[in-house]
Every structure is written in C-alpha cells, then in structure tokens.
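Section 5: illustrative case.
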C-alpha cells in the first residue's frame, strides 16, 4: 500500500500528465477554428492581389505563384497545429510513462504521425513548384499519378500512427472509466476534431476523478 506522501506524489503526477493532454486538445481545438481560417483568409488575399497585379503586368506566372503561396501558408498552418498538439501529447505520455510503462506504442505513434505529416507538407509544396517550373520535362500525368500514390501512402502512415495513439487513449479511458475518452479515441483515428473534442471532455472528467480521489484507509493493526 502506498504511503500518504507516495499517494499524493502519484496523484500529482497523474494530474500533470492529464493536464498536458488537456492543453494539447485545447490547442488543437483553438487552432483548428482560428489558425486555419486566418491562413485561408491570408492566402485568399494574396491570391486576389497576385491576380490583380497579373492583369496589369507582363508576368503570366503570378497566378501559379499565388497558388503556391496558398499551399505553403495552409500547409505551414496545419503543420504548426500538429507540432504544438503532438508536443503536448508527447509530454503527457512521457509523464504518464512514470505511472504506466506501457505507453511506448503511443510515443511510436507520435513519431509515425509526425513523419507522415512532414512528408505530406513536402509533397503539397513540391507539386505546385513542379507545376510552376516551365522547364520541367516530366509529363503532368506522371506527376499527378505519382503524387496521388505518395499521398495515399502518407495518409495510411498517419492513420497507422493515430491508431497507436488512439489505442493508448482508449486504455487510459478504461483506467478512468471515461466513456467520452474511450469513444473519442476511436473517432480520433478518422475525424481528428470530433475525436479531440471528446478526448478533451474525457480528460477533464478524468482530472476531476483524480482530484477527488482519497487515499485508502490504513490496514487494521492486526494485519
């Protein structure tokens, strides 16, 4: 049986780990509803400016360049969302590892998602650049076909990583008997934002349960 000090230390460690998860989900929700719309507005503004300049100037590449800028801005916004989100998720699992050692799959999943996401951003930026390059000798059909195959592979990689992460959150949901976390862990694999909202609710519920947890009574003196 844990002593009172050990019980409080474990309780604090659990709360710290859950707090990292809570911050990760909160950042994800805020950034999805704020950062991406702002990025789209900025990108659309750049496109309008580029087209208006093109109508009064000699360059014919400005619309293509503006599309490239749009892709880069939105890709960077999405990458930024995931980097912040994955950072706090990673911190949470590293803290939780001190309580439950079986979180290595979730940490592996974070690395898998990150690698797939970076690959997708590189692909999103590379394809428009190849389209703008007038000297490119590769037929557009082969560029489109190969990029589609690579995109499918990278999407599959990201889903595999999310499965590892989702399975661990489902296990944590079982630990705290949180239906929101268990359901959110499954939904998260396919629909990020809906799953994250449920996971956020589940983590808040788990934190409340940990905060109200009391140490077990001491054993009788005759034991």
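Designed sequence:
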């Amino acid at each position: 049986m844990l002593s009172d000090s050990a019980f409080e230390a474990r309780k604090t460690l659990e709360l710290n780990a859950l707090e990292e998860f809570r911050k990760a989900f909160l950042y994800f929700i805020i950034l999805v509803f704020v950062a991406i719309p702002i990025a789209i507005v900025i990108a659309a503004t750049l496109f309008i400016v580029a087209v208006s300049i093109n109508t009064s100037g000699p360059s014919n590449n400005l619309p293509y360049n503006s599309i490239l800028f749009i892709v880069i801005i939105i890709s960077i916004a999405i990458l930024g969302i995931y980097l912040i989100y994955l950072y706090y998720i990673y911190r949470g699992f590293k803290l939780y590892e001190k309580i439950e050692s079986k979180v290595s799959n979730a940490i592996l999943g974070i690395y898998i998602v990150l690698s797939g996401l970076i690959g997708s951003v590189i692909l999103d930026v590379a394809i428009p650049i190849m389209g703008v390059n007038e000297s490119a000798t590769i037929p557009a059909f082969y560029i489109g076909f190969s990029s589609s195959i690579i995109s499918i592979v990278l999407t599959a990689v990201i889903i595999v990583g999310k499965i590892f992460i989702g399975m661990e959150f489902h296990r944590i949901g079982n630990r705290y008997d949180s239906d929101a976390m268990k359901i959110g862990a499954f939904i998260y694999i396919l629909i990020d934002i809906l799953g994250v909202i449920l996971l956020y609710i589940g983590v808040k519920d788990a934190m409340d349960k940990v905060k109200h947890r009391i140490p077990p009574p001491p054993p009788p003196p005759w034991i």
